[in-house]
């Protein structure tokens, strides 16, 4: 059947359908895109095909407004992570239309953006008083591992030390008489001495007396099994 017998809608559909097939081949050959990802791309572009066929939109007449209209309709009901994946699929296709096929006057890919995502969009998580009581009540002192954990948890809670700071503590960093502790390995490499609560000092002492194995290493916390060494 010749093109003269095709309606405008059919011509648009045939053109877009072929371009989509070409794009999938291009993705597979040029970027070694996996078959799973190709199926996802085809799903999105098939929906785009149906949308443009429905509204008689030509490839050369693409605008960000029409793309936004499609996304608003198609992404409705999906989770944000899925929406982000589908927008990425569409951006790749629009880049192809502009750079490889010269079918659009401008590259619309950079204009497809999602809702802003902030690193602290969720409120920080913290333990409430009753949760802290439950945490400390659940700590046992019946084994070497328990004594070590007990001391570590006290250091983390009362002094706000990071895991790496706790693991790098040395015996020479603890001053029982002054009830202080020296943190030498910090983010800005400036050592600092911090006051240590009595309960935390007792937790450290309990580990030193009943949990820490004999070793030539000066690190406070050692591994549980020989050869005993720094964590």
Characterise the protein shown here:
By secondary structure, this protein is mostly helical. It has two domains: 3-111, DNA polymerase, domain 1; 129-210, Intergrase catalytic core (hpI Integrase, Chain A, Orthogonal Bundle), CATH 1.10.443.10. Helices cover 52% and strands 4% of the residues. It has eight helices and three strands. It has helices at residues 8-31, 35-54, 64-74, 80-100, 129-137, 144-159, 163-167, 198-210, and strands spanning 174-175, 180-183, 192-195. It has a three-stranded antiparallel beta sheet with strand order 1-2-3, with no helix packed on it. Helix 1 (8-31) runs antiparallel to helix 2, helix 2 crosses helix 4 and helix 6 packs antiparallel against helix 8. The radius of gyration is 31 Å and the shape is elongated.
What secondary-structure arrangement, pairings included, does this model have?
Layout: H1 8-31, H2 35-54, H3 64-74, H4 80-100, H5 129-137, H6 144-159, H7 163-167, E1 174-175, E2 180-183, E3 192-195, H8 198-210
Antiparallel strand pairs: 1-2, 2-3
Features:
hpI Integrase, Chain A; 2 domains; single chain; three-stranded antiparallel sheet; DNA polymerase, domain 1; mainly alpha; 231 residues; 52% helix; 8 helices
């Amino acid at each position: 059947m010749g093109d003269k017998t095709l309606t405008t809608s059919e011509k648009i559909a045939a053109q877009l359908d072929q371009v989509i097939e070409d794009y999938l081949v291009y993705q597979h050959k040029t970027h070694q895109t996996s078959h799973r990802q190709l199926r996802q791309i085809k799903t999105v572009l098939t929906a785009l095909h149906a949308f443009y066929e429905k509204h008689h939109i030509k490839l050369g007449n693409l605008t960000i407004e029409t793309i936004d209209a499609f996304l608003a309709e198609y992404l409705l009901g999906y989770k944000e992570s899925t929406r982000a994946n589908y927008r990425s699929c569409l951006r790749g296709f629009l880049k192809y239309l502009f750079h490889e096929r010269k079918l659009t006057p401008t590259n619309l890919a950079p204009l497809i953006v999602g809702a802003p995502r902030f690193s602290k969009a969720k409120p920080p998580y913290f333990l409430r008083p009753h949760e802290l009581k439950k945490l400390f009540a659940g700590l046992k002192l019946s084994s070497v591992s328990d004594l070590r954990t007990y001391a570590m948890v006290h250091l983390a809670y009362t002094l706000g030390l990071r895991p790496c700071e706790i693991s790098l503590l040395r015996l020479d960093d603890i001053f029982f008489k002054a009830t202080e502790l020296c943190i030498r390995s910090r983010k800005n490499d400036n050592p600092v001495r911090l006051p240590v609560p009595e309960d935390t000092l007792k937790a450290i002492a309990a580990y030193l007396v009943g949990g820490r194995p004999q070793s030539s290493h000066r690190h406070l916390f050692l591994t549980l099994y020989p050869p005993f060494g720094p964590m």
